[in-house]
Every structure is written in structure tokens, then in C-alpha cells.
Amino acid sequence: MSGIIKCINDKSISRRQLLSGAGKAAAGLAVMSAGGLVVSGAEASKAGSQYPWPYKKLDPDKVAARAYENWYKHFCAYATAGTILGMLQEEVGEPYTSLPLMAFAWGHGGGVGWGTMCGTLMGSGMAASFAAGKDGEKIINDVMNYYSATELPIYKPASPKATFKSVSKSDSPLCHVSVGRWMDKEGVTFFTPERKERCARLSADIAAETVTLLNLWADGKYTPAFGNQAKKHGMTAQNNCNDCHGK
Ligand code: HEC
Question: How far from 232 is each of 118, 226, 239, CA to CA, in Å?
């Protein structure tokens, strides 16, 4: 574990001590963390280049509630990455604090509206990678299977911004297929309050599932469940072959 994280976790080091220490070490080149602690720019950049970054277990219910709200700020990829990494900024501090969370927002609409991989999965994959390194790949692989095989959304917000009746199983991690199936079932078009609410609640489910697996991983209790897609099919693929290839 890096010296910076030890400093942040060690309550015996006062803010003043850190301020003066960083001032001497970095000659004014200091980085402010969420907790108001100061480390030198050189130390922060050293910690930032390590992989993965430290992970601290998050409450999946709190993650879900914030992801739902964050969807309405900058949509799906921001909702998952921005929530998980944003909460790690608060719980861990540096190096997470250096991340501009808006850098993940572009994944909305499966990549600025191209309907490729659902933005919730892109965002969760980034967060799992920062927090769990190569194990993050196994985690997002399981989350992608969960996304494809589960009737979603499940999350019920305390104060819903809209209501709808349908849940659907996407059979695919693709934004276009997933949201299209749900729209067909619900009988609504894309630019409607119902569809927005569906994607906001789905973001809550995917962020919470990702954190649930990250928490198991942090406890040493995570066992990857879903196998390698490319090895299974002899090429990269989704599982709903017949949707595109016919019978
Ligand atoms: C999202 C749509 C989609 C899905 C889902 C999909 N494919 Fe494809 N696949 C395509 C397209 C488009 C091509 C390009 C070649 C073509 O037009 O046939 C392709 C090409 C292929 C090819 C190489 C070209 C050929 O026809 O021999 C194979 C093999 C293949 N897919 C198998 C699968 C299998 C097996 C699955 C399920 C595990 C699958 N695909 C799922 C759309 C899809």
C-alpha cells in the first residue's frame, strides 16, 4: 500500500502536519484530496500509476441510490463509473480524487448513441478495473452475464421521477438490443420519461451488482462464475446468435 494512502488513513497525522510537510516536499506543488488532506504532486502521480488502486468496500444500496440520481445528470456510463469511482474518491481519496469523472460520460447510449455495449457496463468495467486490476475483467464478465440474463430493472427508487410497468431480459450486453427489447415490451419510444427512468434504474442495478462482486473480491470470497466468451464460441461474440443470424 502506498505511503499516501497510509497517511490518509492514519488519523494521528494532523491536517497541519500534512500541509506543512507537503509544502516543504513539493514546494507548492500539492494535490488536495476529498478529505482535505494534502500530498505532494510527485507522490500522487506515483500512486496514480500503480495498478490497481486501493479498494474499500462500498454499500451496494447507497451505490444504487446514487447511480440512479447520477443517471439524470450525465446518463448511464457516468452513472456507474461516476458513482463507484466517486464514492471511492470519498472513501479512499487519492489517487481516485485525481480522476475527472466526466471523462466516463461519453459511454452514454452505448458510446455516444451508437448502441454498442450498454454504457452501464462500460462504466462498471472501468471502475472494476481501477479497483481490482485484472480480476476486474472477471468481475465485469460476470456482470455482463448478469445484465444479459436477468429481468431488469429491479431497483425501486425512493422518489421515482417516472413510472413504467415492464421489466425485460436483454439476452445481450448491447445498448440497442437491450433498450429496444424493453421499449417494444413497454410500448414507448426512446425519448420518453419512461425509457429514461428504465435506464436510470438499470444503472442502479448494474452499479450495485458490480460493487457486490467487488466486495466479495475484497473479502477473498469472489469466484468467477461465467466463462470466457471468445473461447466458448471460437471468436468474440454475444450469445444471442439467432437474433442476428436467423435460424
Ligand atoms: C449483434 C448481431 C450478431 C450476433 C448476436 C452474433 N452475430 Fe455473428 N455475425 C454478425 C454479423 C453482422 C457478421 C458479419 C458476417 C455476416 O454478415 O454474416 C457475423 C459474423 C459471424 C461469423 C463469421 C462469418 C460467417 O458467417 O461464418 C460467425 C462464425 C458468426 N458470426 C457466428 C456467431 C455466433 C456463433 C454467434 C452467437 C454465439 C453470433 N455470431 C452472434 C452478427 C451477429
Answer: 22, 11, 10
Q: Which residue has its alpha carbon closest to ligand 1 atom 28?
A: 235
What pLDDT sits at residue 28?
Answer: 35
Q: Which of 236, 241, 242 to mutate to test the pocket of ligand 1 (most atoms within 8 A of CB)?
A: 241
Scanning the structure block, which residue is given the C-alpha cell 428504465? Answer: 198
Q: Are 163 and 197 in contact (CB under 8 A)?
A: yes
54: cis peptide before it, omega within 30°?
no
Q: Identify the CA nearest to 88 among candidates 190, 211, 183, 242.
A: 211
**Shortest-distance Cα residue to atom 1 of ligand 1:** 244
User: Distance between CA 9 and CA 52 in Å, rounded?
Assistant: 18
Please count the other Cβ atoms lying within 10 Å of the Cβ belonging to residue 169. 15
Q: Which residues of the chain have pLDDT under 50?
A: 1-36
Q: What span, in angstroms and rounded, lies between the C-alpha atoms of 219 and 5?
A: 19
Report the residue among 232, 244, 247 best suited for mutation to probe ligand 1: largest number of ligand atoms under 8 A from its CB: 244
Distance CA 131, CA 88 (A): 9
pLDDT for 43: 77
Q: What is the pLDDT of residues 17-42, one digit of tens each?
A: 343 334 334 433 444 444 445 567 77
Which is the closest atom of ligand 1 to the Cα of 172? 5
